[in-house]
Structures are given as structure tokens and as C-alpha cells.
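Propose amino acids for all 50 sites.
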């Protein structure tokens, strides 16, 4: 998990867990990625069912 956190968000888990501001940045980024993926899946689903 540490390596994935470092690769995905350029922050180590220790810093993530220690600093609220850094955690909030990472979580906002994760939310944006999740929403983007949901929209992509919905678009693909619509194209498949046409």
C-alpha cells in the first residue's frame, strides 16, 4: 500500500497519516478520479446498449 500511495499521490503513507492538509488533498484527488471513472463507465454502458 505504501508503494501505491507513493506512486499514485506522490506522498508517503506516514506523511499522509500525519498531516490533515495532505490527507485532504489526496482524498479530494481520489474523489475526482472516482467521479471521472463513474462517468466513463456510464458513457461506455450507454454506447454498448445503443
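Proposal:
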Amino acid at each position: 500500500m505504501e508503494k501505491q500511495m507513493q506512486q499514485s499521490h506522490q506522498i508517503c503513507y506516514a506523511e499522509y497519516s500525519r498531516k490533515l492538509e495532505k490527507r485532504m488533498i489526496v482524498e479530494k484527488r481520489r474523489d475526482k478520479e472516482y467521479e471521472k471513472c463513474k462517468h466513463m463507465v456510464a458513457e461506455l454502458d450507454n454506447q454498448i446498449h445503443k
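The chain has a mean pLDDT of 88. The helical segments are 2-9, 13-18, 20-48.
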